[in-house]
Amino acid sequence: xxxxxxxxxxxxxxxxxxxxxxxxxxxxxxxxxxxxxxxxxxxxxxxxxxxxxxxxxxxxxxxxxxxxxxxxxxxxxxxxxxxxxxxxxxxxxxxxxxxxxxxxxxxxxxxxxxxxxxxxxxxxxxxxxxxxxxxxx
Length: 137
Description:
Distance between the termini: 19 Å
CATH topology of the largest domain: Double Stranded RNA Binding Domain
């Protein structure tokens, strides 16, 4: 019997999830131009690709004012958002609905992430119509 262990560390570039921060950091190198540089938020372990991205992240997520603005909270996991649209998008993670790529079988909780994946990773493949249908589990 397999136990479900939550993968807490998420790649902000491709959405892949990892059990350990070190594994995420090794993975993040493949998304950078030189394969080595990335910028880690020491408060939440989010990996950003540029110093400017890290500065923007810190201002948006870790200042006293930004913490007050995050007033839309998920009732399932307590993650907070500045806008109701962010919470709505996040709630898809808890809904059991997923979009599965027919080429690599990777699953996504929302259609926009799925389309971004398909454009970035499989642009050379022809688009099929049935791979945009959500699947409930």
